[in-house]
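User: I'm putting together notes for a lab meeting next week and I want to include a structural view of one of the chains we've been expressing. I don't have a solved structure, so I'd like a prediction I can at least talk through. The sequence is below, exactly as it appears in our construct file.
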Amino acid sequence: MDSSGDLNSGSALDYEAWRDLMRSMCGRYNPEGVEPGDFTGWMRPVGVCGFTALDMGCNAHRIERSCQDARLDGVDHYFAVFQVGGQSSALAHNDQAVQLGAGDVVLVDAARPATYFANNGSEPWHTVTVNFPRESLVSHLGFDPGGGICRRAGTTAGRLLFELIRNTDQGEGSASSPADSFMQMVVYDLVGALFAPSDPWPASRHADKLFARIRGIINDGIADPDFGPGEVAAQAGISLRYLQKLFTERGSTCTEFIYSLRLDHAARLLNRRASLRTGRPLSEIAYASGFRDYTHFARRFRYRFGYAPGAHAGNVRAANGTLYGSVTSR
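Assistant: Thanks for the context. Below is the predicted structure for the 330-residue chain, given as structure tokens.
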């Protein structure tokens, strides 16, 4: 990335106009270290594959976002902040302090306080930021990245992401392209390549915790015959693509896992039917286990256990008798 970035700055804004526009686009950020009457800045929205980017800068010595600002905003997104040109700057965020030169990019968590510092000099600083909704980003990446991660100029992913920003500049108010949904996946993949943790364990622990929650969601929903992967993903707050990825990594699919739990539940109901001698209809057990069609249930049950649902009680008694005889004969 070159220092200019080939992005055209917007119209000049005074102190109040810059702060108000920033608040409407990103949240509460307050320019400090410069008298309001001496303040000069600009801010221009840029459309990037359905995301909102801002080409902006100013001559303030410091931009402050306090804990109170973050709490009052209630915003829940990340920013990828590219240092494009002007004087270098620094960022204090998430218990980290990083120095930024032209071409560097840092990930900022808007839900946490942050302070931007302009290094000594009279030249305004110039950045380009891209806004990523937290839920969508975490759903795609499979982990919650920490704010304050910095990547230096020259990384392939950073260079490609900035080129995408520069080349898809559509200006404020432009219509989204039908291809944006596909290009958003490309953008998310580039962000993942930029900011994935070097230690894979945090991401793994997050995925394991999420998968345990997904199991609970499925356990609660298996009795509903309309319950499927789409409903699981929606309740878990993740994309269907990421849900399938979690199951693929564990050698299964979400659909097969749902059927497996339904059949386990049916087997428990059949055991209870046999022990209590209730004579409960097999079709009723099938429906209570989330199967709308008894023939489908019987076919899957036989494939799973090796015998028909009606023979389940006898097979369980035979297995228990064999076990009992083998134990008492010793």
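A couple of points you could mention at the meeting. Confidence is low (pLDDT under 50) at residues 170-175, 319-330. The two ends are 78 Å apart (CA to CA).

User: Perfect, that's what I needed.
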